[in-house]
Amino acid sequence: MASGKANRHTPLNYWETGFSALKMTTLPNALTDFDNSKDRDKLPYIEAIIQEAHRWYPVRPMGFPHTTTDEDMCGGYRIPRGSILMPNVWAFTHGQMVYHDPMHFTPERFLNTEKLSVEPDLTSMLFGWGRRACPGRLVAESAMYLTIALFLKIFDIRKPVENGREINPVVNIKPGVVVHPEPFQIVIETRSPKHRALLSTYADQFNWDQSDSVKNKGNGELRYILEP
Questions:
Q1: Is residue 184 within 8 Å of 5, Cβ to Cβ?
Q2: What is the pLDDT of residues 125-144, one digit of tens each?
Q3: Would you tell me which of 42, 87, 117, 169 could form a disulfide with 6, CB atoms 3.0–4.6 Å apart?
């Protein structure tokens, strides 16, 4: 279980849809048998979730600063040498002329559906432009894909229930050069005894230290439950 607070809508239902996409494919059962090069094409909805997560709330809304080495002109504007340029990534990923209902988390916008046509994927710009683009982009994207796919394969992600009522988690994004969500409540449990046994084996093998989040009990505490 992971617990904390929240104040804005969280698209948890899309994670369950992502798991449904996993169930419709033939994937290996073991953690180490997932082949990114072969299995990734079978999971287009997982890909769409990642693309939409990047678009919905870019980690760096104003990108990375760059300095001009020479004077230049752009759209009729003079840019002196030595100017610091800040790309407005947020504006690019939330343009209403480009994206339908840009503030809504909709992975289907990157898939061909009856209701929506495919919208532009601007994930690449989140890693910068030109020679100064992040050289670790491919590693980062592969690691994120594997993490999400395997997480959905092993864990069940649900809304918390209090006093018999399901709570709709919400997300508050803290502004800044690098943005991140405030703590919010969700329930994460292993999907079966088989998955619990697998995780226990890895925990014993690598002897993970206890998370320091337990020091902040009630304020973003993170706990893992491996048994019912």
A1: yes
A2: 888 877 778 888 888 888 88
A3: 169
Residue 3 inside a domain? The answer is no
Assigned domain for 54 exists: yes
The percent of the chain in helix, strand and coil, each rounded to the nearest 5, is 40, 15, 50
**What is the domain extent for residue 177?**
12-66+78-216
Q: Indicate the pTM of the whole model.
A: 0.71
Say how far apart CA 12 and CA 168 lie, in whole Å.
9
- Are 8 and 173 in contact by the 8 Å Cβ rule? The answer is yes
Contact 68, 82 (CB under 8 A): yes
∠ CA 215-143-100, nearest 5°, is 95
**Residue whose entry in the numeric block shows the structure tokens 């993170």:** 222
C-alpha 151: how far from its chain's center? Answer: 12
Strand residue runs (E) in 53-139: 66-67, 72-74, 77-79, 84-85
Instruction: For residue 134, say whether it is annotated as part of any ligand binding site.
Output: yes
C-alpha distance from residue 21 to each of 24, 36, 43, 157 (Å): 5, 16, 7, 15
pLDDT tens column, 94-118:
999 999 889 888 888 888 877 767 8
**Tell me, what CATH number does 89's domain have?**
1.10.630.10
